[in-house]
TrEMBL record:
Its EC number is 1.-.-.-. This is Alpha-hydroxy acid oxidase. It is an enzyme of class 1 (oxidoreductase). The keyword Oxidoreductase applies.
Length: 369
């Protein structure tokens, strides 16, 4: 990214607007859109804005340390880049550029099963890479992907548990969205994937090409026994992404997972699902310290990171903003996004009277309607 361009990007909303100006309509909608009427997508942001932090004063904040540990490894921020599919849609280097930016920022990068760049190239960047897994209709293929990620040097496995099939995303349906020829799921096929095919005969207008692909590929039979099998299979830290219910958080701890991600998939699965930040306190209480808790869906500022910590999270995942940065300036654009979040978080930390991440977790919050 050119320096003069970076100077015009003062917050993530600026990056979003810049990305919207350069992306084709169908790709912009694929990144921005949610499922159904997008009630949950919009509610994620509104719910975060209802959380107010009670700052402390008369504390020495001449040095504010933003570093922490995530899944037992050091990170410069309580933040990881979330798994997002098909990033070469928005930039020729795709996930490779984003992984380099995350490495430079000192935060983990999560490679998706639907990454358009193979995990081996992403771990070769040298940063901390987590591998996100969708459970496939052939469980053996899922475990093969885990083995591949382990062999590549991934540091964690993140199983997404809220996608038995893709939520009905009306923007993609209306745009008849399909992947261009140069973008494919690098972990699922040697050549172009089934996602390039149009919706099944007789379903015109009822589904996007990606709906058809995921319905044919993902297993709706993912259960707790699958989690147990995966836990037995890998020695890497195991993360479950897509937990909103306290009961599921307790079950996750019983299964020996290392972390759960409180997430409604950015409002892209069940429309009408609870905003993630509203589910966070109950999940934290239910886990009873048995695993780390990460917050996903709607995080757009360093203040949001502070809010999540004050509500008991270990850190957050950031998804769409990384895509905006990638669209605007490739690696430099993602670096700009992460730099902005780092600066905003340090500012929020100090202004709340916290010299480090541990102090942020002791803050009190108040919710306003």
């Amino acid at each position: 990214m050119r320096a003069d361009g970076a100077e015009d990007l003062h917050c993530l909303a600026d990056v979003e607007r810049a990305a919207a100006a350069v992306l084709p309509t169908a790709v912009r909608d694929f990144v921005a859109g949610g499922s159904g009427a997008e009630v949950t997508r919009d509610a994620n942001r509104a719910a975060l804005d209802r959380v107010f932090v009670v700052p402390r004063v008369l504390r020495d904040v001449s040095r504010c340390a933003t570093g922490t540990t995530l899944l037992g490894r050091p990170a410069r921020l309580p933040l990881a880049v979330a798994p997002v599919a098909y990033q070469r849609l928005v930039h020729p280097e795709g996930e490779l550029a984003a992984a380099r930016a995350a490495q430079a920022a000192g935060v983990p990068f999560t490679a998706s099963t639907l990454s358009s760049v193979p995990v081996e190239r992403l771990t070769a960047v040298g940063g901390s890479v987590w591998f996100q897994l969708y459970w496939l209709r052939e469980p053996g293929r899922s475990l093969d992907l885990v083995r591949r990620a382990e062999d590549a040097g991934a540091e964690a496995i993140m199983l997404t548990v809220d996608v038995p099939w893709m939520g009905r995303r009306l923007r993609d349906v209306r745009n008849r969205f399909a992947l261009p020829d140069h973008v494919r799921a690098a972990h699922l096929a040697a050549g172009p994937t089934a996602a390039h095919r149009p919706p099944p005969s007789g379903a015109s207008g009822a589904a996007s090409a990606l709906d058809a692909h995921t319905e044919a590929t993902f297993s709706p039979a993912l259960t707790w026994s699958s989690v147990a099998a995966l836990r037995e299979r890998t020695r890497l830290p195991l993360v479950l992404k897509g937990i909103l219910a306290a009961e599921d958080a307790r079950r996750a701890v019983e299964c020996g997972v290392d972390a759960v991600v409180v997430s409604n998939h950015g409002g892209r699965q069940l429309d009408g699902a609870l905003p993630s930040v509203d589910a966070l306190p109950e999940v934290v209480a239910a886990s009873a310290g048995g695993c780390e808790i990460l917050l996903d869906s709607g995080v757009r500022s360093g203040t949001d990171v502070l809010r999540a910590l004050a509500l008991g999270a270990s850190g957050v995942l950031v998804g769409r903003p990384a895509l905006w940065g990638l669209a605007v300036g490739g690696e430099g654009g993602v670096r700009r996004v992460l730099d902005l979040l780092a600066a905003e978080f340090r500012d929020a930390l100090g202004l709340a009277g916290c010299a480090d991440v541990a102090a942020a977790r002791e803050l009190r919050t108040v919710r306003r309607a």
